[in-house]
Amino acid sequence: MGLSSAGIGSGLDVTNIVSQLMSIEQRPLTALTTKQSDYRAKLSAFGSIQSGISSFQSTLKKLSDPKNLQTIKATVADTAVLGTSGGAGAVPGDYSIEVTKLAQSQKLASAGQLNAQAVVGTGTLTFDFGTISGGTLGTDGKYSGSAFSSNGAGSKQVTIDSSNNTLNGIRDAINSASIGVTASIINDGSNTPYRLALSNSQTGEASSMKISVSGDAALGNLLNHDPSGSQALTQTVAAQNAALKVDGLDISKPSNSFSDVVPGVTLTLKKTNAGSPTNLSVTRDTDAVKANVQEFVDGYNKLTGSLKSLTSYNMESKKGAALYGDSSVRNMLTQLRGVVTGTVTGGASSLTRLSDVGVSYQADGTLKLDATKLQKVIDTQFDQLPGLFAASGASTDSQVSYVGSTAKTQSGSYALEVSQLATQGSQTGSGAASLDYSGGNNALQVSLDGLSANINLRDGSYASTSELVSDLQTRINGNSTFTQAGSAVTISADASGVLSMLSNRFGSSSSISLGGTAASLLLGGTGSATTGLALTGQINGAAATSLGQTLTGASGNAAEGLKVSVSNGSTGARGNVQYSQGFAYQLDQLASSFLGENGMISMRTDGINSSLKKLDSDKLNLEAKLGRIQKQYQDQFTKLDTTMSSMNSTTAYLTTQLTALANNSN
């Protein structure tokens, strides 16, 4: 406050008087500042609550997903032979595993060249990938009397022009094309030392390479490679599948890593152990479940402890915490307590309370875990744990399975009725399929599930109908248009050689039809195509929506969002689907409601921010007003000081004059 005066001549202390008056005037400003601090403390407290709820929600995710409650642990005796990782759905047990072959990719090498930078020639390299069958492999690394069958993944081309027509350039062109083949140049130390080495990035017997060259003869002489014909390249490593025995059963896999042999377990082969099987032990990962339940208890106690601390009152200091008296936080505590002391309803599990697994609610509002009781449940009722913690469902019909739900799905038991089962789109021949597709009759247009792709069959003949079926199915299912969409077909032939094709999808979007020059040969005429039928039915008395083999409960119904899969069976009543929301799922949904855009925290913080904004405005207005008041006081008391000084001067003058007058009269 810029103006000050110690008194011009009256001795009046203007500055001190104004200061004391302003200290009284500023009391409302001090109150506003205190209120701002209180609001900011509340805002910080709600930020702490938001962080705490988010942290607790992360803990809940480990129990709200049924898969995390059914995890398994896979242990292998000889880790040098086999690597493992466990997931959900595994069956506990012991397995004997003997690895006799590792999957490997084919490797080829060219004839040696004198100079890697010398011009070879220009043209186009066309790579095809597939299986080599029959014949023999000579000591020179070349096949005789063999056949090559494409895997249907499609051919890949690499252009060799004047910019890359040396051995080095060809290597770089192949690598830059990203076709799944790696090229390198090896110096073997001979008189013509530079050899182009090719390696497929894919393993398995169906990854062998066929290379066709169009262009300069020199380029063809170097790289033409047909396993069923002329071969300019030498095979140094053959493509092969992994071979192993699991409990004595022979298994062949194109990769060294797979997850469909032992359910729920991914196996990674590292080396062979022929004659010395190793043991794989699959057990329930009970340690993970116990750790997750303990983390759930600790997380709940930490969150509720924080909420209580932020709303507490200190009797000694007579002061409340930042959110003392805040009803929204008390409401959060009430809702959290209501969930953990409640009961899971609607499900098939006999576990319905947290106390059933040793989690008890204490008098001080905390949870406590009885590890012994939890262990007993794990040992005897392990399969029922998902129903206690997660959102889960079960069906009384063995051909109906629970798929999922939404936040709007209510717990309960819901009747299921099916009026039409989902079917697959099909294409059936009207006569025996031809085995000869030579002379340009190998072009095929396939329409599958609403998508179309052009596929070429072998330009020649097939030895048998079974070979034709295998090659056709491989080519269709390997086409990128279909693989990217998740579409595939299953093809079979009857004893007369008539083909039947089924889309692997179900429902009204499932279809397959053929066109092109090869279509009539494959179908033995025109054939007949049938589009799949959609699954229709009711859940809880209301018409459900369908997709493939899945029905979803109707909007506005108690079963809204409930998804079930109907794999087979009959039409009509199909029993009941029991659905329940476990404790972790309920708390997760509650936490989301607290943190949501329209949740308690957002509403309270929005209100606080609005109040702070108004306080800022009020403070600015009050500060401006106080500035005017101070100036007014300053002006008033300065004027008073001037007046008093003038009066003092007049008094002094009059006193002097009166004294002089008195002296003169004497």
UniProtKB/TrEMBL annotation:
Pfam families: FliD_C, FliD_N
Localization terms from the record: Secreted; Bacterial flagellum
Entry's Gene Ontology BP terms: bacterial-type flagellum-dependent cell motility; cell adhesion
Residue ranges of every copy of the Flagellar hook-associated protein 2 N-terminal domain listed in the record: 10-106
Domain Flagellar hook-associated protein 2 C-terminal: 239-399, 576-649
Top-level taxonomic group: Bacteria
Keyword Coiled coil: yes
Location (main, coarse): secreted
GO cellular component: bacterial-type flagellum filament cap; bacterial-type flagellum hook; extracellular region
Keywords, sorted A to Z: Bacterial flagellum, Cell projection, Cilium, Coiled coil, Flagellum, Secreted
Quaternary structure and partners: Homopentamer.
Chain's role: Required for morphogenesis and for the elongation of the flagellar filament by facilitating polymerization of the flagellin monomers at the tip of growing filament. Forms a capping structure, which prevents flagellin subunits (transported through the central channel of the flagellum) from leaking out without polymerization at the distal end.
Family: Belongs to the FliD family.
Name of the protein in question: Flagellar hook-associated protein 2
Organism name: Malikia spinosa
